[in-house]
Specification:
- The protein is mainly beta and 112 residues long.
- 0% of the residues lie in helices and 50% in strands.
- Strand 4 and strand 5 form a beta hairpin.
- The protein contains no helices and 11 strands.
């Protein structure tokens, strides 16, 4: 089955860190660039970051630069998002995305 499965969502305090993995299966993961996207409560989708097929090129939304790091392990068919210095406005459901393929999302809640 072709799918993306995010995990790692949690409740964290402001200033905390979290790492989100996204496990891919059913397709040749290493052939594709892949993105992280999030959706905050009551808001639309917000693009976070993208990584090239080989991991050499990374792109970030301006508000995430310096706090979030995208990476991938093609041998393990897994994408990662390392999030540091989390803020309340980072509260959202986080998704990984390849073309029209989306995972089910994982909830990150930043609270004080």
């Amino acid at each position: 089955e072709v799918q993306l499965v995010e995990s790692g969502g949690a409740l964290v305090q402001p200033g905390g860190s979290l790492s989100l993995p996204c496990a891919a299966s059913g397709f040749t993961f290493g052939d594709y660039a892949i993105s992280w996207v999030r959706q905050a409560p009551g808001k639309g989708l917000e693009w976070i970051s993208r990584i090239s097929w080989n991991g050499r090129l990374t792109y970030y939304a301006e508000s995430m630069k310096g706090r979030f790091t995208i990476s991938r392990d093609n041998a393990k068919n897994t994408l990662f998002l390392q999030m540091n210095s989390l803020k309340s406005e980072d509260t959202a459901v986080y998704y990984c995305n390849v073309g029209s393929l989306w995972g089910q999302g994982t909830q990150v809640t930043v609270y004080s």
